[in-house]
Amino acid sequence: MREAPWPPEFEKLLRANLPLLDADAPLDPGLNLADHGLDSLATVGLLMDLEELLGVTIPDELLEQTSFQDPLAVWQLMASAAGDGAAPA
Amino acid sequence: MAVRPDQPPVPAFRADSSPERLADELLLALARPRLTQEVCARVRDVLGTHGAGLDWGRFVDLAGRHGVLPLVGRNLIRHRLAQSDEGRPLAPYRWIYSYAYEGNRRRNQALADEYAKVLRAVDDAGIAYAIRKGQPLVDTVYGDPGARRVGDLDLLLRRDTLARVADALTDLGYAQGRQSQNGERIEPFDRRTQLFWRTKLTNVALPFVKLSHRDDVELFIIDPCTSLFQVSSGVEADVGDFLDRRVRRTVYGEPSFVMDRTDQLIDACVQLHVEATTLYYIEIGKDLTLLKFLELAELLRAADEDVAEEFRRRVDVYDCAGSVAWALHHTALLYPDAVPAALADGFPVADAATLDEYGAFDGQVHRWESDFTTRLFDPARNKDVTARSNVPGPRAAV
């Protein structure tokens, strides 16, 4: 199985915000997050939790460029915010 | 389009109106940029006959809530409606009205001095902008710096210029935050508010504020806006189109830019609909403001056939006919002479049932228990609204 491009902690946090994703279903990088229960308020909460987890603050310009539509987009956002590579704090 | 009379019809006060209803009718009569001799005579007659029994507390309260206290104050004083020909007081506490108008004029001068600096700074930074609402309306509709309370400076901008705007405003002492409890500091918005506004309310940015150190101005507020349309409306409009059409105008004594007349009309219609139906505004009692209907009516009165034709075209381009229909329908209820039938007929209300709905922009549709004219002057109209806005942060522009 292809290794996820993100650390387990990221996936755990993301899954906690996807109430419509089965626990044993893979978190596909292209999974539509809105379709699996991530609404606008939850997105904000998720970003706050990810900032705290990874010890980063997402710059405004990156926020505006991101669609948050799938896990890969969210991970790439956090990775960009962290610079060389995001890692749990 | 038929030429509309410059002068609205004389208000018809009902002989059997309750003291509360009389206050409402008086407010409608006096909240006008210009009063004709006929209107003045009618008001003086009504006040002479029924003034003692009128609910003046309600009148002042409603005038304040609807943003028209300086205007009605000016009209009462300027046309000497607060006293009879014999000098008998017809309206108690005449000084409330004169203070409201004169104080507002001084306040607006303070805002003008500050916002002129902002316009210079934005211009010096080479940032393309157009002023929305506010002072351009004061100049166009009233021609009187004291008649209309101004709050913030609304700037329509390209989103990719926001960082430069932030730099220019920071240099002038502005910050994105809220006033502290003691009023002496600006505290940054919490992270949740910042993230919500930056990811969900992409048509605006969090306001930039600066302490004024004046009793009559809480804060100087700059409201950046990057689209006239709510994200949830689904309307996709290139702000560059609006900026390309902007016109030069001297505002606050500074060579500046405002939206062209047609775009001002669109903005007024869309904003009226948004405010009337969005939980954010309903919660703070700013959903129905007579001032906004009055100003749309005045913009319509000033629109010639060319503007009307271009207005129809652009509404079609931006697919905002629903908001326009709502705004024209309700403005016509208050100012029937201001909304030409030819224009209104071009924007029929698709479903009359939607006229009393709210919450659509919030993704949760509800229905008012009472109709528009009942709600307009009911300060407690939101008491039965249980739905809540999920927008955190300042209760300013959305």
From TrEMBL, chain A:
<dbReference type="InterPro" id="IPR036736">
    <property type="entry name" value="ACP-like_sf"/>
</dbReference>
<feature type="domain" description="Carrier">
    <location>
        <begin position="4"/>
        <end position="82"/>
    </location>
</feature>
<dbReference type="InterPro" id="IPR009081">
    <property type="entry name" value="PP-bd_ACP"/>
</dbReference>
<protein>
    <submittedName>
        <fullName>Acyl carrier protein</fullName>
    </submittedName>
</protein>
<dbReference type="Pfam" id="PF00550">
    <property type="entry name" value="PP-binding"/>
</dbReference>
UniProtKB/TrEMBL annotation, chain B:
<dbReference type="Pfam" id="PF14907">
    <property type="entry name" value="NTP_transf_5"/>
</dbReference>
<protein>
    <submittedName>
        <fullName>Nucleotidyltransferase family protein</fullName>
    </submittedName>
</protein>
<dbReference type="InterPro" id="IPR039498">
    <property type="entry name" value="NTP_transf_5"/>
</dbReference>
